Amino acid sequence: MSKNSNCTQCKKARSLLLYIAGDNDLSEAGLRDISELCEEGSSPSVHVGVEIDTRGEHSGSIRYEITEPDFEGNAHRTVIERLSEFDSGKPRTLMSFINWGMKRYPAKEVALVIGGHGDGFRNRRRSIALDEGGSSLDMPEIEYVFKRCKIGRKNKLGILGFDACLMGMLEIAFHFSDYTRILVVSQEVEPGDGWPYNKVLQHLKNSQSIENVAKGIIDSYIRHYIKIAVTNVTQSAIDLKKTRHAMKALSSLGYGLVDYLENSNNNLKHLKRLQTLRQNTQGFSVAEYVDAIHFAEQLKMLQETLITKLAERLITTLKECILSYWNLGREVKNANGLSIWFPAAIFSHAVNRSRYLNLNGAKEFDGWIKFLDTYFGMQRIA
Questions:
Q1: Per-residue CA distances from 320 to 165, 183, 314, 369 (Å)
Q2: CATH code (residue 110)
């Protein structure tokens, strides 16, 4: 057999690998995602491979290939492999899919999308890719999978997409900076429809650069929800090579805020001012997260020279790494593309602190950790 006798073995310009964790109440939405892919179809330059685990549609998971449109203009989902029942929230299940997809659909640029329920970093049962019968993946587990699949600095993904809720965090973006060039995520809860995959595939086929693919996804996502009159949605594309500067700026700001709280003749007054600013900052459906830029803008109202300087530095570095973002709706009008962890309650800080440290390690944002510890420690004794 010649190397070109099977087109799926040929290296194309791009491939889309879509992992749908649909063994839950998103099962029907996952099937619609595949139908959307078939509305567009693959092309001589773009592979499309999908794995979906559903609830009730069939037992086990199915791996599909999306074909090119036929002579009548219709693309189809072709079953490539039927799998036994696996937990889509287990690292080995995602690892198997990625290894299969990278081998069967080699490409110069790979867009990997993980779809399903998401909750940022804090909830072990809903971090991302929740399987109703088992568990879900947290960010260190996904990193482990990438390492095992030989995805890294010398072999980065073009795009890593989380078609899931609440994943648009600076800390998550930085966590994957060694593994992908661009991250596409939502700060807010996503509607059940998720991404419009026909449009996603159009951008993969027609956009010249991977950056323009990502920007196109953001634009099409928002236009989709404008069309169907759904509001309070967000979507962002993040250039991950620039996130290190933003993390350093966040850490420096944290140290500045610790100084603001501790070296004052009226610590309680300063604490209450920060509490008010926290309450007035753009938040999301889970009260753990706030918009990073909006928070930094609020801090300038303190009219403290050092804090203003550090806040402006954070804003500048965040804007440098946000390629594109959109918000739609009054409840997210101050969402600017990336969130940070700043829980609203002492209990949330205590319960989730260790998981937060597990996200990247204190050395990467130790100033911000110290601020949160100081802020909530003062509340306990106030």
A1: 24, 14, 10, 23
A2: 3.40.50.11970
- CA angle 102–100–211, rounded 5-degree value: 30
The domain in which residue 159 lies consists of 7-241
List, in sequence order, every beta strand (DSSP E) within the chain: 12-22, 46-54, 61-66, 77-82, 107-115, 157-163, 180-185, 233-239, 289-291, 322-328, 339-341
Give the pLDDT confidence of 304-363 residue by residue, as tens digits: 999 999 999 999 999 999 999 999 999 999 999 999 999 999 999 999 999 898 887 767
Domain boundary among 209, 225, 241: 241
Degrees, nearest 5: CA angle 282-236-35: 120
In degrees rounded to 5, what are phi and psi of residue 187?
-75, -35
Whether residue 314 is contained in a domain is answered as yes
Q: Is residue 41 part of a domain?
A: yes
Rounded distance between C-alpha atoms, residue 107 and residue 58, angstroms: 30
Ranking 199-203, 252-256, 263-267, 351-355 by mean pLDDT, the lowest is 263-267
- Would residue 326 count as lying in a domain? no
265 and 223 both lie in a single domain: no
Edge to edge, the sheet with strand 107-115 lists 77-82, 61-66, 46-54, 12-22, 107-115, 157-163, 180-185, 233-239, 322-328
Instruction: Say whether both 227 and 297 belong to one domain.
Output: no
- What are the tokens at 311? 């806040």
